[in-house]
Model the fold of this input.
Amino acid sequence: MSQAPGNGGEAITITVKVNGKTYTHTIPPRMLLVHYIREVLGLKGTHIGCDTSNCGACTVILNGKAVKSCTLFAFMADGGEILTIEGISEDGKLHPIQEAFWENHALQCGFCTPGFIMNLYEFLSKNKKPSEEEVRRAIEGNLCRCTGYVNIVRAAMAAAEKMG
Amino acid sequence: MESIFSGRYVGAPLRRIEDERLLKGRARFIDDISLSGMLHAVFVRSPYPHAIIKSVDVSDASRLRGVVAVLTYRDIAGSIKPWEFEVPSDPMYPLARDKVRYYGEPVAVVVAEDPYLAADAAELVSIEYEPLEPVVDPLEALEKGAPRIHERASSNAVYKKSYKCGSVEDAFSRAHVVVEDELSMERVYAAPMEPRGVVAHYDGEQLTVWSSTQTPFDLRDAILEKFSDPPSSVRVIQPDVGGAFGAKIPTYPEDLVVPLLAMKLGRPVKWYSSRREDFVATVHGRDVRARISLAATRDGKILGIRARILGDLGAYPSDYWLPDVAARILTGAYNIRNGFVEVLGVCTNKTPLGPYRGAGRPEGIFFIERMVDLLADELGMDPVELRLANMVRPEQMPYKNCFGFRYDSGDYPGTLRKAVDLFKVKDLSKWAREERGRGRLVGVGLAFYVEITSGGPFESAHVKLEPSGRVSIIVGSTPTGQGDATGFAQLAADILGTSIDKIEVSWGDTGLIGEGVGTFGSRTMAVGGGAVIKALEEIIKKARKEAAKMLRVGEEELEYRKGRFVARRSPDRIITLLDIAAATGGLEAKVHYDPGRPVYPFGAHLAIVEVEKDTGRVRVLGYKSLDDVGKAINPLLVEGQIVGGVVQGLGEVLYEQIVYSRDGALLTQSLSDYGVPTALDAPARVEVHLQETPTHHPHKVRGVGEIGAIAAPPAIARAIEEALKPLKIRVRKTPVKPEEIHRMLQQAGKEDDV
Amino acid sequence: MSSPYATLPEFEYARPSTLEEALKLLAKYGEEAKVLAGGVGLITFMLERLVSPRIVIDIKKIPELRRIEYTEGKGLVLGAAARISEITRYMDSNPRVREKYRALYEALSRIADLQIRNRATIGGNICEALPFMDSYAPLALFDAKLRIASVEGERETTITDFVKGPGFLDLAPNELLVSIELPDPPRESRSGFSKIVPAIEYSVASVAMLVANPVDPRSREVRIAVSAATPAPIRVREAEEVFRREGDIVDLLDAALDRMTSAIKELVIEDPYASAEYRLEMLKVQAYILFKRLLDSFLQERG
Done:
């Protein structure tokens, strides 16, 4: 998008740290966080799959917590820290969750995948040895239409193991 | 040529070559495409299911800051021809002309500098409608005096056909037992995680269109055919597509309007659907009901079948053939020689019906499998024994079924017997009986299916072996997440005797390969794979000519093995494909592969369910499958297709349903109201078994994409009935929701008390 | 159809840092203002363009609205902008508080999903005013007091008086829900929450129940609150009264559930997702199961 979407209302200046880099932008109040991430910062790995915060494809980490960026205004992240799918692999090396998804065939079309990975990123950092049932509860806010979830749960368990 | 199955790749569960960019968030889905100067379109849609458009006033919308254009039918009338369908009906205009026929039909389009501004303006487009009485229920649509949806059609039943074989009257008069029932699969929505979208750019000569489609070649042809002033060159690109499941096969109004806007306005234009919009603007699936009778002898020989199949086609009969497929596969795996089936396709004021994973086969198989279970109960026979007694036998293959489908090969009874062993059906049934004795409502259900895959007309491939040893494969197939690129690379690496790292697979771009068909109907690995193999064989043939020259032997003297030609009588005369490619500046081949007849995968699926007595909720505890998919090029991917399809089937039996109000408004407009299964609904394990009966394809593949969605509904339905034994409860439709199970339980309980 | 465009209308934005400032803004803009806490409900409605406020007042930066405090004897105080996941985490680290307000804990920890709970607030859940909001039944159960403020002063209400029906709250345009106070439940009480979510994302019948001193007819208390099946939450006092009768508590259950049925029958919602009959039946079934579960927990403790 050549210009910031939704330029109505009096613009607000926000400062956010995204994937370790600090940005300051002046944005219209009505801009959604997901549009800020995708269109202003150009980080297109965060996806929009619904408009009712059901599917979870837009999940990012905001101040250490997994949130759905399609139902947050960008200004709500002001002063905060965001981590997106683009920010979790260091020096091109895949994060253990990404590796586990690859090894366990936990993705097909891949559209929902970044959302699952970001959600699990928070969950697995706080739950070192989750049960399968806990993993299923943790990802109930992420929908996948391709895999039937069996391999996603398997990948999450494998990632927990890897992350030790 | 040696067998293509002797290499290290084909048959190995390799992780996918597609994945790394998807995992890193570097894929390019439709909404990820941004072009300089790009405008954003939003469509203004009808709030009425059936109405005359009296007037459209776009003046307020046009005046809004940032708005570039607001168009209605009048503005594009001379530019795009409408869709005309093969059955009697009025044309469908890309923007409604004077009448809307479903809730959500596009009426106008707003183009603005950004999507927020476009939506602001869309709110200001003022359309005056004269509402007409809608008809939502297909049975009501058949009644005399029902609102007529298409003026050109004499009734709402726009499609009628019947098929027969043998003498059905005779069969029914000879029968000891006749069972009859009404069954249905309700209207569902494919719900790929990515909604649809289109981006178009016109540079004055070439029109480039990106669309989240399964059929870029169809879209290109539609533009060339329907635009009254088509551009000199059209290139359609399928970017990464976030799931499709058949719903992205059709060419949609937005697929034509957005490119036209780009041409008219001279700037790139994007439209990306919201989920709410996708629910009304993308085809729905299933919505087929049936009244079926089976005639049988008292020892369980099925003598005949009689059926009436009624499909609700929605507002436009673009895919009127769907109920027809359901009708023609209706004898399933069984040797039924007397049959009559009447098919009706009825128009209603709903979103048009279209293909959804299985497209007719899930309906037909659900119907016959339910009927066979009903007959087994009626006769007091074991459903497995009843199936075995009636199955098409291997010596009858190839077998033409009652309604004209020609099953290619396979041992159905042998496969069912094998499944009963592999699944440990006896132990499971015993366990379930014991648990039921302890008050737990658990049940085991089995279903057997036959389905059709790998249809024509052809698929294309263009393979290049570069002098550097790199291999480029371009295919006409258009996968949307299934992982076929990995499968193609496995085939190529083994045939060329090279490493899979050397192979690059591209697809979904009419600029890269001029002709192709696409990915649907479980055809990609079978037909697209066939094209890849044919191209590789042609490269080897060319290489053989060169090798013969270079080694100065006759072509017939040369044996090809794993990337090398060796002279049979002088084994020191060796030359590699790579040397030949280097010496000749590369080798390439462009082919079309015609698959000939389709193939018919088959197999047995088993579900273990528990019903919560107090609430009627169902949990699928376990699931097992045995599928004859032919050769599994990559078992990991095959398993992924089966499990994914099974969970879609599970959603269809237990949760998913598109609901319209009586007055034609779509009530299920979000993923909150529409029950796509979550991780909590899926079974913990799916035990997948594969078997292989060769087909006529060069690599013996049958196709696997739709199996799960076909087999799961009847297997789960039966498991629910078993769980509720000894109550005689019948699952007659999908979905069967907790409330319905609860009601049936209460009614059955009352009857029991009496 | 409601707007399908997935973008929101324009608005102005204010982020007051004190309650006073927020109330002044509300007084000034009244019906043209919408309060933003977690945003989950508001943004969804705005995406459908069902609401188009001129100004959005973000109350997240007002410290007192984010309080989560328990004081022995006084009870639990939740600021309206306290996040669901913060409340459940607080309870996890204070197991005594969690057990006191078990029904609330069970309801909050199953709201929507993990990501939503990380954003959604208790005040937002209350003010969304849809029948199935998960906080309703437990707040009714614990006699929660809702503190409402405006520039004119403060008032106190209950959840059953506050939530009138789908989309209707007893909240004037210049008023703000400030906090929710849950007095200490009866000593030695047990409580729990249950809901039915069939094939859709939200409950069609929710029940919260509390039992105290089950064996002693004079001091025993049973509370029942329902939501989701009815347009607004209901504390079913007619059913609770039955348990004041003499006799074994177990023998009173059927009579109590009958009283519940007759008290609310006329109010139960019927829609394409669940019939009134099923909703009512599910209220009874869950009340029955909860009752058994709570009694069992008393027995186990003594056993």
